[in-house]
Specification:
It is a single chain. Strand 11 and strand 12 form a beta hairpin. Helix 4 crosses helix 7. It contains 16 helices and 15 strands. The chain is α/β, with parallel strands linked by helices and about 500 residues long.
Length: about 500
């Protein structure tokens, strides 16, 4: 399970988050003191995770880490959509997973499993913690049927040819459809009138709660209405309610889900239980590429694996998982981020600078009368908490960590001095904010270049030793060999010159 902080910070830290529902920042006050229920929409598993998927995963991972850090007990639910999500997010067309299964000649569950495994691998590479519960839509068909039955019973849905649709007009007489997106029902109805005949629906805007399966549709389950499958919007409400109860604190996801997905979720919750289920709605903004949203539906996406390998025409090099994580955290989660190689290269440099600063801490010589004191670190720490409490302002936190690096480098260059307490304080600052909350970690990939540099230095020393031996300067020759041996380098003299290996 997750590490619990030793001292509870809940009392000390006042977290403010932007609530899409009220369009303002609100102080976070959970329904049950000390506990948080959080639901985030996970991927539809019909293709590889791309940069657009990394953003909500990292954003809500950050929130998950921070809530736990300040002392809350968090139940974090992130679903896997493995049925019901039709092409173009519509009620017509093929199921995205079934379509992929047909093209690949696989059982749909094989497709879902394969891409779920790959999604998990990508998440672990990005150091995204696993949620507390990861329910699958296909594992909760009964709960979804129950939800549809409740909405029908309350007169806000109707059956048509074996399918069940949500009746937006009936709903709108009692409640308001559009509270999250700010859309007016008349606008929504007028927009939909332009589309050809409504077919099975009373209104084009009514959305499917249960779809009757066509004979060619391979994913279906029995219900009292028909052999069919649930609507995409139904899943999250049924699973959120099952694991977090009929009222919970936070529901998150990408901004592209506000309408229709989350709007429909609110309507279903209210239609089934009479009031809203979620207190705070949080949305991360989009990743754009050449100014357009990056997404599977637009076909302009770059998968995470392509970033990690560099295997994509738009990439000038490979970018490590931590570079990607850092790149996403360098922007506030509510701002758009435009992908470019230049931006990623600058993130890579920034991350290296941050990690190098942390490594340098161990080498600093501290003095009791140092100019940089614990007070400086405490001030820095206070500012980091202020930034986190201000709607998770990670760019400011990163900026403050860079300030710390600047001071570390000044001490290393002997332009200032530092007390031992301040060194320990800075180590703790990095451990809490850079590693614990931002979830950054040193990567093995950066070691290759370092190894090369070290090897070059050892070779150069052995060349100096060879020249010393030629000049019969045995003292220098032995000193180099003994010092290298002390550091763990074993030197062997052979007929073809000296060889070495590291015995560490």
């Amino acid at each position: 399970m997750h590490h619990r902080p030793s001292n509870t910070l809940i009392m000390e830290q006042k977290l403010f988050i932007y609530n899409t529902l009220s369009r303002k920042k609100e102080e976070f006050k959970p329904i049950t003191p000390g506990r948080v229920g959080m639901y985030v929409c996970g991927p539809t598993v019909y293709g590889d995770a791309h940069l657009g998927h990394a953003r909500p995963a990292i954003t809500f991972d950050l929130l998950f880490r921070y809530l736990q850090h300040i002392g809350y007990k968090v139940r974090y639910v992130r679903n896997i959509t493995d049925v019901g999500h039709l092409e173009h997010d519509a009620d017509e067309g093929e199921d995205k997973i079934a379509k992929k299964a047909r093209l690949e000649e696989l059982e749909p569950m094989e497709v879902a499993q394969y891409y779920t495994n790959r999604f998990h691998a990508a998440m672990h590479a990005l150091n995204v913690e696993d949620p507390s519960i990861e329910p699958h839509a296909t594992g909760h068909i009964i709960e979804q049927e129950q939800l549809v039955g409740e909405i029908l019973g309350n007169g806000m849905a109707y059956e048509s040819n074996g399918s069940v649709y949500f009746d937006i007009e009936a709903y709108n007489k009692k409640h308001r459809y559009g509270v999250l997106s700010g859309r007016n029902l008349d606008d929504v109805i007028n927009e939909s009138r332009e589309l050809a005949g409504a077919g099975e629906k009373k209104n084009k805007v009514d959305f499917a709660l249960w779809k009757k399966a066509q004979p060619e549709h391979i994913m279906h389950w029995p219900s009292k209405w028909s052999e069919g499958f649930p609507g995409w919007h139904t899943e999250c409400v049924a699973m959120g309610r099952k694991y977090l109860g009929s009222h919970f604190d936070i529901h998150g996801g990408g901004l592209d889900l506000v309408f229709p997905h989350h709007e429909c979720e609110i309507a279903q919750a209210v239609a089934s239980q009479g009031d809203e289920m979620v207190k705070y709605w949080m949305h991360n903004n989009m990743i754009t590429i050449e100014g357009q949203k990056m997404g599977k539906s637009l076909g302009n996406f770059i998968t995470l694996e392509q970033f990690f390998t560099g295997n994509h025409p738009k990439l000038t090099s490979a970018y490590s998982p931590m570079t990607i994580r850092f790149f996403i955290l360098q922007a506030h989660y509510r701002s758009t981020v435009d992908f470019s190689n230049e931006a990623l290269q600058s993130s890579r440099k920034g991350l290296e600078r941050l990690l190098a600063g942390y490594v340098e801490l161990d080498r600093l010589s501290a003095a009791p009368d140092g100019q940089v004191t614990k007070a400086y670190v405490e001030e820095l720490k206070g500012k980091c908490y202020d930034a986190m409490n201000d709607d998770l302002n990670t760019p400011v936190v990163i900026g403050l960590l860079f300030d710390a690096c600047h001071v570390i480098n000044q001490v290393a260059d002997h332009t200032t001095t530092i007390t031992p307490e301040a060194v320990e304080g800075l180590k703790e600052l990095f451990s809490v904010f850079a590693f614990g909350l931002l979830g950054l970690r040193a990567e093995a990939t950066s070691n290759a270049a370092r190894e090369e540099a070290f090897a070059g230095a050892v070779d150069m020393l052995l060349e100096v030793r060879r020249r010393a031996k030629e000049a019969k300067d045995w003292a220098t020759s032995d000193k180099i060999r003994d010092e290298l041996a002390r550091l763990g380098f074993e030197v062997k003299d052979t007929r073809d010159g000296a060889t070495w290996r590291l015995n560490k």
